[in-house]
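dumping this here before i forget
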Amino acid sequence: MTRLSVEQLWVAPELAALAVLQVAADTAVFALAAVYPEIQDLDNHDDYPELRGALDIIDTARAVTACVNRYKLALLRAQRDELLPF
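structure:
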């Protein structure tokens, strides 16, 4: 994770909350992988409801991270377009 500058937060203050969200999502993935290392080796998680739930959280956390990254990319593109005189 890169540190946000004051200038970045002035332009887009929502980046602070999104940075916290990304760290929380990453932390959840790491914690669940540590608690359930066998999650990578099992083909059928349906027999283990706690593993199915953990895998659902991991999938959702990855999706959240992807959404945040897409949003940040869109912000960068919009800022770039504002700077271009043509």
